[in-house]
Amino acid sequence: MGRASLAEQGRILGEVLARMRAAAPEGVAVFDLDSTVMDNKPRQARILADYGRAAGVPALEGSRPEHWRGWDLADAMRAAGLDERGIAIHLAPFRAFWMERFFTSAYCRLDVPAAGAPAYVREVVLAGGRVAYVTGRPAEMREGTLDAFRRAELPLPDERRVFLLMKPSADVSDDAWKAAARAEVEAIGPPVAAFDNEPAHVNAYAEAWPRAYAVHVDTDHSARPIEVLERIPSIADFRR
After folding, report:
1. In Å, how far are 61, 69, 106, 173, 186 from 169, measured between CA atoms?
2. φ and ψ at 138, to 5 degrees?
3. Pairing relationship of beta strands 112-113 and 38-39 according to DSSP bridges
4. Bridge-based pairing state of the strands 191-196 and 213-217
5. 98-123 burial, b for 16+ CB within 10 Å, e for fewer?
6. Please, which pLDDT band fits residue 1 given cuts at 50, 70 and 90?
7. How confident is the model over 95-149, as pLDDT tens digits?
8. Which among 40, 162, 158 is positioned nearest to 102, based on CA atoms?
9. Is 227 exposed, middle or buried (0-12, 13-18, 19+ CB in 10 A)?
């Protein structure tokens, strides 16, 4: 289907709000976090910069969010200014350094909201809907996640209207967790809409909840060769 124009994006987001009003107060809107309502590129950039300082690689100390165009660590190192020989030397140790830090509260505090996301999620709540943030982040990232929410002015979980569903353990795959979390969402209320950047996950929502409005957020993703279902619209962010 391709990414919607800004005007069409506004129509899609407006349609979700109309559905939330019609389903209030029980209806639930599901939002993924990373690369959906939150942008983790500042987190990625800080980890690379910290590696540069720790490893004595000045080129990497200048890592910036715009150097991250996806999940390819070598591409980010290259964009930061490291040459191919340096990448060959540092890619494996940086990957280990990254793995120790990316899924932590200390670093996820650096995340920033996607364009329009805080205002839009607040609109969903004001429309009488319930919000379920369903994320592949493990539970130990909760403190940092909530700090980032506060800075972004995203609605905070109160276990009444807003819920934060996190993986019980980092050992659980994102696919398995998102499938299991559907039952938790359904216990909160009937799913009305679901936003996710990962094609496999937004497709699964559309198939599990055929009456809900599944929306793909067209940012970066795992790069698995999975196409978004033709009936699912894609938006760039939450501006309208």
Report:
1. 32, 28, 17, 9, 21
2. -70, 160
3. antiparallel
4. parallel
5. beebbbbbebbbbbbbbebbbebbeb
6. low
7. 999 999 999 999 999 999 999 999 999 999 999 999 999 999 999 999 999 999 9
8. 40
9. exposed
Tens digits of residue pLDDT in 135-147: 999 999 999 999 9
What is the longest distance spanned by two Cα atoms in the chain? 58
Residue whose tokens read 């996950």: 201
Q: Could you identify the residue written with the tokens 């699912």?
A: 232
Query: What 3-state class would DSSP assign to 55?
Result: helix
Spell out the residues 6+ positions from residue 26 whose beta carbon is closer than 8 angstroms to its own.
130, 189, 190
Other C-beta atoms within 10 Å of 174: how many? 17
Q: What pLDDT, on a 0 to 100 scale, did the predictor assign at position 222?
A: 84
Residue with the two structure tokens 């807003």: 162
